[in-house]
Structures are given as C-alpha cells and as structure tokens.
C-alpha cells in the first residue's frame, strides 16, 4: 500500500484570501492549452493574430468553467443545489463535470467559429489536442482534494485517503491518478501523434471523443460513484458511463464520416 501524500488543498493563504490547488490546476490547464495553441496557430490559420487566439481561449475557458459547474449541478446533484443555490458558486470545493464542460466548450467553439469564419469542426479539431492538458491537471486537483477516489482494493498501490474524505479508512484505488494517466497523459499523446499528419476535418475530434469515452468508461469500473447517485443500473452502471457511451459512438461516427466523404486533407499538425 502507498501512503497518501498529505497536501493542504489550500496552496497559499494571505489573510482571508485562500488560493486552492484545485483552482491553480485550472490555471495550469488553461495556460498549457494556450501555449500549445500558440505553437499550432500558424499552421491552423496564418492570418490569426495572438489577440484572436486570446479571445478564443477566453471563451473556451468560460465554456469549461460555466459548463462544467452547471453540468455537475444538472447531472449529479440537482436536488442539493435547488435546496441551497449558493453552493453553485463554491467551485473551490470541487464539483465540476467533464461532460458539462465539454458541452460548454462546444457551444463556445460554435459561437466563436461563426464570428470568425471557421466551421465548428475546424475549431474542434484545433482545440481537441489541448483538452487533455486541462483534464490531467484537473485530475491532480481531484487527488489533492482527496475526492473521487476508487473502490476498496488490495493492489500494492492502494491508498487510504484522509478521514474527512473517507471515514471508512479503507485502502482504495487512486482512481484520480488512473484518470490523470489515461485522460491526461495517454489521450494527449494519442492526439498529439495523430494530429501531426494531415487529417480530414472531424478526424481529430472523432479520436478525442472515442478515446476519452473509452478511458472514462473503463475507469468508472473502479471509481466509486457519487454518493447521491450510486449505481444507476445492473449494480455497476454509473452516470459517468452513461454520459461517456454517446461520446464513444459519436467518435466512431465522426471517424467513419471523416474518412468516407470526399474532401481535401487539412493539416492540423503540431
């Protein structure tokens, strides 16, 4: 069994002002995406300025934060937020849903693309390789917050999370680290290598949807579902799996359509 590193969720406190690691992980994710987008900008569109890229990152970040929070409220704990709506604003305590954030990003990409002469999938193909940076950083934030841990296990790398998080004090799968490895590192490498060669429009987006959905679906088998939801069917199906299945199907559909319709190759290479 591995010891859980006791990391204070508050990275820095200056009087009443507290800066949480969870919030810093979002800044790291946005900053990393910005850096990668800057490297890819000339190949995506040489006419785009850094200012236009800054505008894109701003709207995408807004989509992530607003969509992620509203997605958690709607998909995972609606009754609690109806009872106490002020909880919606306490984002430093966690409670962000990837699928909601993804919807927020899609809306922001559609809106920004219409205003800047780009199709929805042109922008999504450009954005997709950046997303795992934020996903990986967010999972590290979950780990520091000692939230979203896995089922009890006797594997050698099991961890006992702090009592405030897990009163049962059982050795558990560190599922946050599994998601960091799969949704962050592995997904980034897949999309990085795939997008280095010219691909038809929608192919990079399809790869993202397919592999994120697969990775999330797999990890849900060892991750404890949110207590207020539990398992939704057959004693093992979780909300995360239900929301990921359409992504897998959409990814397969996008890849099939991308490679089976006539169109010129577009270089989205890094």
TrEMBL record:
InterPro entries reported in the protein's UniProt record: Lgt (IPR001640)
GO MF term (any one): phosphatidylglycerol-prolipoprotein diacylglyceryl transferase activity
Gene Ontology, cellular component aspect: plasma membrane
Localisation: Cell membrane
Keywords: Cell membrane, Lipoprotein, Membrane, Transferase, Transmembrane, Transmembrane helix
Record field: transmembrane: 20-37, 57-76, 96-113, 120-140, 177-194, 201-219, 231-257
Membrane topology: Multi-pass membrane protein
EC number: 2.5.1.145
Main location: membrane
GO annotation, biological process: lipoprotein biosynthetic process
Keyword Amino-acid biosynthesis: no
Residues given in the record as a 1,2-diacyl-sn-glycero-3-phospho-(1'-sn-glycerol) binding sites: 139
Pathway: Protein modification; lipoprotein biosynthesis (diacylglyceryl transfer)
Domain of life, source organism: Bacteria
Function: Catalyzes the transfer of the diacylglyceryl group from phosphatidylglycerol to the sulfhydryl group of the N-terminal cysteine of a prolipoprotein, the first step in the formation of mature lipoproteins.
NCBIfam families the UniProt entry points to: lgt (TIGR00544)
Family: Belongs to the Lgt family.
Protein name: Phosphatidylglycerol--prolipoprotein diacylglyceryl transferase
Organism of provenance: Pseudomonas trivialis
């Amino acid at each position: 069994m591995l010891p859980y590193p006791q990391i204070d969720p508050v990275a820095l406190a200056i009087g009443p002002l507290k800066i949480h690691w969870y919030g810093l992980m979002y800044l790291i994710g946005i900053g990393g995406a910005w850096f990668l987008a800057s490297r890819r900008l000339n190949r995506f569109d040489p006419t785009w300025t850094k200012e236009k890229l800054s505008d894109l990152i701003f709207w995408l970040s807004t989509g992530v934060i607003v969509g992620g929070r509203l997605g958690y409220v709607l998909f995972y704990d609606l009754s609690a937020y109806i009872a106490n709506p002020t909880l919606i604003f306490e984002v430093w305590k966690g409670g962000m849903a990837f699928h909601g954030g993804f919807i927020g990003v899609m809306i922001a990409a559609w809106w920004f693309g219409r205003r800047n002469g780009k199709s929805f999938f042109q922008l999504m193909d450009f954005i997709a390789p950046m997303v795992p940076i934020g996903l990986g950083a967010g999972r590290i934030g979950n780990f520091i917050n000692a939230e979203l841990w896995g089922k009890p296990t006797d594997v050698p790398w099991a961890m006992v999370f702090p009592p405030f998080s897990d009163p049962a004090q059982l050795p558990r799968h560190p599922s946050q680290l599994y998601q960091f490895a799969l949704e962050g590192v592995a997904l980034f490498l897949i999309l990085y290598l795939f997008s280095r060669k010219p691909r038809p429009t929608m192919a990079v987006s399809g790869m993202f949807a397919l592999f994120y959905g697969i990775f999330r679906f797999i990890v849900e088998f060892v991750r404890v579902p949110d207590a207020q939801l539990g398992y939704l069917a057959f004693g093992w199906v979780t909300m995360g799996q239900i929301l990921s299945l359409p992504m897998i199907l959409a990814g397969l559909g996008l890849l099939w359509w991308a490679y089976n319709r006539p169109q010129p190759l577009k270089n989205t290479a890094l």
